Amino acid sequence: MELAELVARRPYPAAGLLIGLTRRCPLRCAHCSTGSDPSTREEPDADRLVRFVGTFTEEDRPDVVLLTGGEPLLLPALAERLSALARRAGSRTALLSGMFFARSGNRRGGRAAVVPPSIPPPIPPAVLRAIRGVDHFSASLDAHHEREVPRADVFRALHRIQEEGVPVSLHLTGTGASDPYLADVTRAVEREFGGRVPCLVNEVRPFGRAAAWARPARTAPDAGAVSPCSMAAWPVVAFDGAVLACCNQDTVDRRPVPAHLDLGHIGVDDWATVRRRTTESPVLRMIRTVGPAHLAARYGSAPPAGSYCDGCRALGGDAAVAAGARAVAAGAAGALLDLTAAVREARDGAQGIVRRHGCAAYAPLVGAGAARPGTGGRTAPRDVR
């Protein structure tokens, strides 16, 4: 499974499932949205996760399961088992890693032991088995990650994973289209891989450790505007086992979960129940079709306030919003509205989705073989030094 195929499924309700295996991570990146560190042990119960994924069937399962964290490869045996269970039902699995295992030597006091480039560190056997078991592997890389894991180490590990026959990609993060880091790293990816490794480029958002310094993703919503949220399409398993209809980290960590975003818990619910709540909720259908601000302006008992996501979270306690959504989006008519919104969101493919939700200037890189912006359709040859 290539990156563009995965991203293109993002607008379709319950086409994917995101699972945070653990909040723990060996790295201490300054922009970490989950605020992860080596000592954090918050994670779903492994047996419950296995039971939940085991409820997938060939007739009823997500197309894609994304394993993330924290660092999911701190639990390689669990990642391998979940991937095998998902594959048995016909689901494909992707995994996003911070690449801690690729570091050449032990890092102490911010310095790494020098390892000759011709002798790359081996990937630990348990980690390699977990990687072999997924259908797509993505590595995080940005200025903050590079202080923890050097770029050259990440590139060497990706070459090794490609040798195993696993499709790979890079998840790059910067401050925006004019960020010189993004220009530099995308050129480096072209030189190293010759257009064979796609990149999903996002901008740092004010969540987790970046909350104090990153710029907000959106300004206050325009109450008259229709602004659908396809990020309410895939259920998210949080670190305490709760299942939410939103991947915004502030929402994922919020307790109690806003009522309209609460899809259940892996300890008591199966996939069929979570999927049904995702696809049949009139409020979620309206959020995906017109967006929370428009929904609040049209039916709410109070005008929307705060950010786009603040306004969405506030909908859970508004009975008038729930009643208005039921009147429009219940039943077969609501299902058709939902599908129409998903098809519209996906009409320009993976690039269109990245333009709307990621760093638009680098959207073409989501497809393998695509040119970096500004290269006139050419990709650079691989650096064979």
Explain what this protein looks like in three dimensions.
The chain is of the alpha/beta class and 385 residues long. It folds into 2 domains: 3-215 and 348-366, Aldolase class I (TIM Barrel); 230-345, no CATH class. Helix content is 36%, strand content 12%. The chain has helices at residues 3-8, 46-53, 76-89, 125-132, 143-146, 151-163, 180-193, 249-252, 271-280, 282-289, 292-299, 308-313, 319-329, 331-345, 349-357; strands spanning 16-20, 64-68, 92-97, 107-108, 111-112, 136-142, 168-174, 199-203, 236-237, 242-244, 262-265. A 9-stranded mixed beta sheet has the order 8-7-6-3-2-1-9-10-11. A two-stranded antiparallel ribbon has the order 4-5. Strand 7, helix 7 and strand 8 form a beta-alpha-beta unit. Helix 2 (46-53) packs parallel to helix 3 (76-89), helix 3 (76-89) packs parallel to helix 4 (125-132) and helix 10 (282-289) packs across helix 13. 50% of the residues are buried.
Kindly list the characteristics that best describe this protein.
about 375 residues, alpha/beta, TIM Barrel, 9-stranded mixed sheet, two-stranded antiparallel ribbon, globular, disordered C terminus
Topology:
Layout lengths: L2 H6 L7 E5 L25 H8 L10 E5 L7 H14 L2 E6 L9 E2 L2 E2 L12 H8 L3 E7 H4 L4 H13 L4 E7 L5 H14 L5 E5 L32 E2 L4 E3 L4 H4 L9 E4 L5 H10 L1 H8 L2 H8 L8 H6 L5 H11 L1 H15 L3 H9 L28
Parallel strand pairs: 1-2, 1-9, 2-3, 3-6, 6-7, 7-8
Antiparallel strand pairs: 4-5, 9-10, 10-11
Query: Structural class of the secondary elements?
Result: alpha/beta
Question: Could you tell me the strand content as a percent range?
Answer: 5-15%
Cα end-to-end separation: 29 Å
CATH homologous superfamily heading of the largest domain: Aldolase class I
Strand order of the largest sheet: 8-7-6-3-2-1-9-10-11
CATH topology of the largest domain: TIM Barrel
Sheet of most strands: 9 strands, mixed
Order of helices and strands: HEHEHEEEHEHHEHEEEHEHHHHHHH
Share of helix, binned:
25-40%
